[in-house]
Amino acid sequence: MTAQYPADHEQIYHTLEQEILRFEHKPGDLISEHYLCQRFSLSRTPVRSILLRLQENGLVQIVPRKGSIVTRLDYDIINQFIYERVAVETMVLRDFILSCSPMDAERVRFVYSQLEALGQTYFSDPGHFDVDRFRETDLSMHEIWFRATNKCFLWERLSRTQASYTRFCTLDIIEGSNVPDVLRDHLEMLQLIDAHDVSGIEPLMRRHLYGGIRRMGALVFTKYAGYFEPMKTPSAEKN
């Protein structure tokens, strides 16, 4: 049975989740119960419930007599999640290209036009660039081929918030300047769909989904080293 939460508690959870995903609370930061009680005018019992839920979803770790610490990103999990997405999306996009209708292709074209418009804001007015909306629109383009091929369960699993991977994608947009690469890759996906060409899917998906690893590069081990769990053998997928 799915747990039910009061509407205001649900909103507070969502607020804290988004703040963590946007690095307003950075990995390693302490979030105290006292601070949350004062900020949201709540007693300790509902605050603890919200923090437990954040812990269940991998966003904080509750440390007795210390508080709740924002979790660091796990580079190995990020790599494995990307590996999974490449394997699954290569097959799903192939199936979509082989079976898609003109209407399906037009849906992809429409979402790409939205992504392109958002990308133009990044170039013309970066101060008003909406990182969250850009990422959501990126995902909505991928969602089309999952739903058209009746792979909705897979999509729901792959697209849900993942503590390490989701934050890594946000960090890539903020720091890695991935917008030009994302627009180019999605345009190539659209071109493959229009040409009914399945031969280029795997190399394109590998380049696209491992792009964050490539763009962030040494920043993971230097500027943002404190955001990540210690890595025994740091290595990136070669593309």
Structural commentary:
- By secondary structure, this protein is mainly alpha-helical.
- Helix content is 65%, strand content 4%.
- The chain has two domains: 7-70, Winged helix-like DNA-binding domain superfamily/Winged helix DNA-binding domain (Arc Repressor Mutant, subunit A, Orthogonal Bundle), CATH 1.10.10; 75-227.
- The chain has a three-stranded antiparallel sheet with strand order 1-3-2.
- Helix 1 (7-21) packs across helix 3 and helix 4 crosses helix 6 (131-148).
- The longest helix has 25 residues, at 75-99.
- It is elongated, with a radius of gyration of 20 Å.
Distinctive features:
single chain; 239 residues; mainly alpha; 2 domains; 3-stranded antiparallel beta sheet
For the record, the count of structural domains works out to 2
Q: Assign an overall shape.
A: elongated
Give the strand content.
Answer: under 5%
Secondary structure: helix percent: 55-70%
Number of helices: 11
Secondary structure category = mainly alpha
**Low-pLDDT segments, ≥5 res:** none
SSE order, as H and E? HEHHEEHHHHHHHH
Distance between the termini: 43 Å
Outline of this structure?
With 239 residues, this protein is mainly α.
Secondary structure layout plus pairing:
Elements: H1 7-21, E1 30-31, H2 33-40, H3 44-56, E2 60-63, E3 67-70, H4 75-99, H5 102-124, H6 131-148, H7 152-159, H8 163-175, H9 179-195, H10 201-209, H11 211-216
Antiparallel strand pairs: 1-3, 2-3
